[in-house]
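Revision sheet: structure tokens.
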Amino acid sequence: MAETKEQAETKDQADARYVAVLVLSEQERMKARRFYAPAFFGLSCLWLVIVTALLYLNGSSRLHLSDTVLIAALTTTTANILGTLLVVAKYLFPGGN
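Predicted:
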């Protein structure tokens, strides 16, 4: 069955709209990458500073936390930060292992 000229033009218009939506979607993803990648990198750096300060204060006897509390605090919050980074990275940068 041969396509009429109008059907071919309609198909071309639909294809053009589809490509435009894909381009717009990728542009939005790039905006998100530009914002969230540095934000989460900064969050990770801040977390490292906080962990270092916590350990330093505890080691210099200015802060008195038991080993159990230190292990629990460091383990749970580190797991939360790394988990969040993993989820964000997989969303912002798909298509790889």
